[in-house]
Amino acid sequence: MSLYRTNEEVAIQKESCLMVSATITEVAKILKPGITTLSLDEMAETFIRDNGGIPSCKGYHGFPYSLCISVNEQVVHGFPGKYVLKDGDVITIDTVIYKNGFHGDHAYTFIIGETTPEVLQLVKVTKESLYIGIKQATTGNRTGDIGYAIDQYTNGKYGYGVVREMVGHGVGREMHEDPQVPNYGRRGSGKKLQENLVIAIEPMITMGSRKIYTLDDGWTIVTADGLPAVHFEHNVCVKKDAPEILSDFNIIEQAEKANANLNSSYYSL
Ligand code: MF3
Ligand code: CO
Question: What pLDDT shows up at residue 1?
Answer without folding.
Answer: 65
